[in-house]
UniProtKB/TrEMBL annotation, chain A:
The keyword Glycoprotein does not apply. Belongs to the SusD family. Residues 86-223 form the SusD-like N-terminal domain. SUPFAM superfamilies: TPR-like. It comes from Parapedobacter defluvii. This is Membrane protein.
Amino acid sequence: MNFRFFNYTTIKRYAYAIAVAMLLNACDSFLEIDPKEAIAEELAIVDKTSLNTAIRGAYRALGAADYYGEGYVNLGFVPSGDVIYNVADNISDLNFRSTDAAFIGPWAAIYNTINIANHIIEKAPAVTDLNLTDTERNTIVGEAHFIRALAYFDLARGWGGVPIKLSATNDPDGDGFTPRSTRDEVYDLVESELQLAETLLPETINRIRATKYTVWALQARLALYRGQWPEAISYSTKVIDQTGSYRLVTPFRAWFRDNAVQTQESIFEVAFSAQNLNGMRTRMSLLANGGEYRYRPGDPVVSKLRNPATGGGRVALLDSAQQSGATQYAGALYYRSPATDPSYVLRIAEQYLIRAEAHAQRRELAEAKADLDQVRVRAGLTASTATTAEELLDAILEENRLEFLWEAHRWFDLARTGRLKEKIEELKPNLTIQAYQQLFPIPVDEVTLGGLEQNPGY
Amino acid sequence: MYSIRYILFRAISIQAICTLLLFGMSFSLTAQETRPLINSTLDGAVVDAATKEPLAGASLQIQGVTHSTKTNNQGKFQFITGQRFPYTLVVTYVGYKTKEVVASGSPITIELEPDATGLDEVVVVGYGEQRKGNLVGSVAKVNPATIKTIPEASFDTQLQGNVAGVQISGGTGIPGSNTFIRVRGATSINSSNDPLYIIDGIFVNSTSLQSIEADRNTSPLADLSPEDIETIEVLKDAAAISIYGSRGANGVIIVSTKRGKFDQKPTINVNTSQGLGWAPKKWDLTTGPEHAMLVEEYRANEGLTPVFTADTRGLPEDQPTYDRQAILNQTAHYQNYGVSLNGGSQNTSYYLSVNHSEQEGIWKTMGFNRSGFKVNVDQKITDRIRVGTTNTLSRSIRNIGRAVGSGGTGALYQATVDIPTYLPIFDGEGKPLRWVNFDNVYSLVTETDNSAISNHYIGNIYGEVDILPMLRFKSTFSLDYNNYEENEYWNTSLLRGLANNGEATRSYTTSNYWVNEQTLDYNTTIADKHNVGILVGNHIEGTLITNTFAKGTNFPNNSYTLISAAANQTVDESWRKNALVSFFSRVQYNFEGKYLLEATFRADGSSKFSKKNRWGYFPAIGGAWRISDEPFLAGNTAISNLKLRMSYGIAGNQNGIGDFAYRGLWGAGQGYPDNGTAELPGTAPLQLANPDLRWEKTSQFNVGLDFGLWNNRLSIEANYYRKYTTDALLQISVPNYIGFSSYLSNYGEISNRGFELSINSQNIRKKDFTWSTSFNVAQNKNRIEVLPSPMSFEDRSFLRIEQGVALYSYWLYNFQGVDRETGDMILEDVNGDGEITPADRKVVGDAWPKFFGGLTNNLTYKQFDFNVQFTFSYGNRLWNHNRMLGEQGGRLDANRVIFASQLDRWQEPGDITDVPRLTLNNYSRQEVSRFFEDASFLRLRTLTVGYTIPLKNSRVIDRLRLYVVGTNLWITTPYTGADPETRIERGENQNIQGYDFASPPTPRTVQFGVNLTL
């Protein structure tokens, strides 16, 4: 044995090496801090519980402030000619700009929703959990496909063709740029997503989550937007025929007043809670009801609603207050405290009007009038006096305007029927509407960063 | 308690392994202590050579050993020492030339010659002190004594106009709110641009802890009483800041609080001041008839029917006018009280103080009260071992008023200015009326119940051992602990309360920021010529910030204000933690004080980065040449100081980024029901991973010249610097169609170049009359050198940065005037396509001043003293958002106020004006450069007149001074808004600067005060 091994210098050297090693080690563990509020991406979807939380997150995203929580819904009803803003606003004057947060927000919120759905669709098949049955897995994947379908439908009806992204995003640079598809390609995708969802989802009633009925209702709307009248009729009929589950509730206000939620009127509504408030309520309500009263219905639509012959029970969509001798009108669809008002996505009344419009397009006037009258009668009105196909289509468009005054409908209806210019200029004579305004502008960053082609005119 | 115990535990355990191992051995050398042998006793006195007045507090050190003492109040001292006569004493005293005296017997009288050069002045630098004459780096020292009583947001605001190159704007008129401060420009887009603050060696958090809808940021620095501050040093160049490594890039502000001195009789200082403040300017609004007239003019131009008619609202000329600003504004009262006691015995010195301050806002509901006390103690255990502690405990209460609120609710400004003046404030029965979508201002100022209470401790404890006469070991543990409690209650007379039937929030934030440091400092002189200093040290820190947020809505009635009474209760919690481990070293060398060299190095390891990028290394080197000490200038009587300095180095930045920013994360709190209404937990993607995330690095080159004439009666300091930031931490925007809008990355380069000039002059120095002037001016050119794609801020993308422009650039339609014939606005058609689209917006300018600075004059005449300070800024522009909202051409009718400036609109062909004709087309664009105004200014920042009552014969009172100080008494500016320095500070984005929205202006104040020394 070599005694030199034990000499003082060597011991010191070893001790020093150990000390340095311990030091680096200690520092490293000291510097390793894991977050508590969030978890690593890889652990996000691994078992039944996390799959369930992820799909709930997807619905929550659907109700995000910029999507069905407010932003996207506003794009439906604000540029309608019927909304007057009390504060500075460009959308109500159809002064559309690519830099406007009103477009940037919803676009981002919709793609955010799509990304969650992509994650679920991509990861669900790999989840191995004995507690997860095939039906449960299929339901969740089916719901994700429905959410993706709704999201792409909402994009396509607003902006036309948009980039189709069907893979989960883990890396900002991984996928490279995705160009815009055409609107038809997007609608085709929506259709195939819905067909998949239809096979995966159960035939049950759940008014806040997707089921087979929800899929049919969206299929009916998609067919209407694409002018596929027979499909529009067949799908809406499938929903309308579920008379035990869905019906036009009476009186008109019964589907939203008195804190009602998930009534038989509703095919799909996004739920809100005290933890997750609906932003539309504050923006819409009168000051006296604690709202911000950012916008109000214009005089023509107010008088239409207040006239029993044209508005009927739909006058319940209006609230009013007196201040200094003048009457202020406001929307009344969202009114609760706390603001747990649902956001309505698919209602049975729309299915009747879809079928009515499809029939009218096919010149099946009696059927068309019958469906239209269902909606009118429920609102407390007399049967329609329209006789020709054109009159009926006009009446249906007008019925849509009042029935869905505060929902994501009017601008889309005017844009798809090509009547935007006529109807807006009638209500706001100092505006001139151009054809290009039938599409929203692509948000500016998507053009500059994402290389997307801007819609013409912007 | 958990946290403190936890911290101690962490510190001790980590410390034990990480450092004591390294220093332990050398520490053990000091363990043996010997009783000193008494070989001589020396009694003496130190006096001024000219006046023979005794000098109290002069330091005497026996050369070659560590034994030192200070003179007492009579200028006397005593040495009882193991040294035998003769030995050499080194006598130093601020303002006098250092003298070496050989003591060969007792007693002795030492005469010191005054030194006006100031080169012996001691300046605090990173981990030590240096003589000003030996500085290599660029360090500015401020003695804020004269301006301490100004009611300011926080003490750092007092640096305004006093330090070249430090751009400051308090500017919100909200007491207790934060300060905009940039030392030599801004180096970062998404990481913080605030300097590092170190108070008595304690690293402190300067970031607002306000968590409830941070309408305005508050400043934790406001918790420190300015009365307790002795000096403030600003470290600017690489030689000075690089020792702070990853936190130094934005400059370092070192604050030294007052301490007692050994052998000093107890001295009591009493300070009090009382004052008033008011808004120097209000917003100029149209009257009711003017408002109605403009609305009708717009409607006529647009072909719309009149709304102000006899049978509806009444004719335009019949409209009344109501003044809401009178309800909001108030004359603010200020009160300050402070008592301090400092003194020391042979082995103990202490400073104790207690203070209380109350500041009201010039807008009702806003206010800031602070009470605190301070205990600083230093104790000599033996000649070689010292321990000490610094403690500040304060309690600050902020009454919070929201200026903009969220969406108009609770917003003071909007409830006051934004409502058309013809609309009544109350109805016939005196009930408050609400208009547009805003609260009633009377309800707001009477019913607002929002406050934040901060219980804040800043303190440290240190031990210091002179292992060898020239080798000093120091260990410090410091803590910045802040409990920040926010309480809000909105009752049903306010919109927020009305919406939710009463709304209460309570947010409880705890910020724990502890630091442990060891330094080993060796200084020696070899052969009387080579001065060498070596410093090595380590630094370990941890930050833990937790927040619990509770909210209740739906209350039984307005009398119940606690969340327990609410029908709906929600709770939220957040948790953030990070840690840093560092090793640093500095080597200094100078040859005869003539050729100076300094090198620093710091290695930082941060928990904010992934393992592979965890460590960052920050070196710097600097040199200086005292040309005036060269033989060829030695005989020159005019030039008393000439020094050339140069430095280059790298500092880093990681502040302001998330603690877990590099990870790909999914967050929770995204619940949704499975069926029915019961919400169940949900998750969703939160952020994209970026394992490559690393430090932001800023290299800085500095060349400076110090020039002194006539015994430094005129001294000039000039600096040129160039800072270049690479790997800038950037929230990179990505196309939203990938499902995210951005991710944090190191992409981007920013440069700052600038020139600083300070001139100090002692114009007159007579017995009864002195006059000195300080002037400083600085220029900083900021430029984004590399940016992958433009980034926009604010909802109308008012601000946008892109490669080649400066930060805080405004992206607008370039306004070129109003067509004289049509009255239409002419905008530049940038892309020349004949149409005005968003593609025609461009960067029209930025918010940076071309130059800025301050001018201070100090005069004393017999018992009077005067201080007058001007600050100025030239070439900075401000986005007048208030005016933009107030000049919308009458199109918003009853929904928005119209500013009086709208009356200048074009009316008929030939009119020359900048305000276009009232049509929708002229007012549908808000992003127009005519609202981006020149906000240059010259401001009389302070004017102080003091009178010291002659009390030569009093045995009790040493000094009694009365003073009056006025602030912001006069200003000249082309800016049309309320204040050219005002700004928005909404917390969410530091990149929004030069934006005037809904801020109360800087108040004009007058205060009267008394300083009493016993």
